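Severity: low
Component: inverse-folding endpoint
Summary: output formatting inconsistent between runs
Steps to reproduce: submit the following structure tokens with default settings.
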């Protein structure tokens, strides 16, 4: 039986369950159509969607209270599986579309909320400072790459998949064997870049690079700017309760 705090599969969403809101079913259907298409820039995402390896959740009315538990449950599932699971969260669309900055603030509000409610101390081998090349968002003892898709993207259109702000949580460990440092990963990244440039008619974003490379910062890759300029300023992530746990 599904509850408001259930992790959802494709089957859960599509089987007509009345407890799942229509707006989410509609946004998911659009997501599935886009991500499953053979022309989608990321082949790993396409395979994951088609194979049913993705898991889903939705948020309405700015209600984050279930998120800490649900993300912990997803990570538990992911650790116990050989599949490269990712977790996709849809935010209920605004009645009137908001500007880019609104969605960006919302994104960081969610990560800050999760951090504040994390029951496990920050990963020992991951920097707690976002301006360090070794920083990554951590939760429940796991480094996680988080990225955003949203209607605020008008030029970076490959990151605009419907009317929802969409957050994608990918545990760092699922990139094992397919990072840019491997032949397989390097080929995939070149393919993704060429597809993105072809669709967007823009050069690949200057903030995108390899994890740990000194010239890049992970937080800037979570939400890239909607143009060709690198991001400036400080990271909106706030270190809070973890300082006292170290």
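Observed output (run 2 of 3):
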């Amino acid at each position: 039986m599904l509850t408001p705090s259930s992790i959802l599969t494709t089957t859960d969403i599509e089987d007509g369950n009345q407890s799942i809101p229509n707006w989410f079913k509609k946004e998911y259907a659009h997501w599935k159509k886009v991500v499953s298409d053979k022309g989608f820039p990321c082949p790993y995402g396409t395979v994951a969607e088609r194979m049913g390896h993705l898991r889903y959740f939705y948020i309405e009315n700015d209600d984050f209270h279930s998120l800490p538990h649900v993300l912990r449950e997803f990570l538990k599932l992911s650790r116990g599986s050989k599949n490269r699971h990712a977790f996709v969260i849809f935010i209920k669309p605004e009645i009137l579309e908001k500007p880019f900055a609104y969605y960006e603030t919302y994104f960081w509000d969610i990560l800050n909320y999760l951090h504040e409610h994390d029951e496990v101390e920050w990963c020992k081998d991951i920097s707690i400072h976002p301006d360090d090349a070794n920083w990554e968002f951590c939760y429940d003892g796991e480094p996680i790459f988080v990225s955003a898709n949203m209607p605020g993207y008008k030029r970076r259109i490959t990151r605009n998949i419907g009317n929802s702000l969409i957050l994608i949580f990918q545990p760092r460990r699922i990139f094992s064997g397919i990072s840019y440092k491997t032949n397989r990963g390097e080929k995939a990244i070149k393919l993704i870049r060429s597809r993105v440039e072809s669709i967007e008619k823009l050069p690949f974003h200057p903030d995108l690079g390899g994890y740990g490379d000194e010239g890049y910062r992970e937080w800037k890759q979570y939400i890239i700017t909607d143009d060709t300029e690198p991001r400036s300023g400080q990271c909106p992530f706030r270190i809070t309760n973890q300082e006292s746990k170290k």
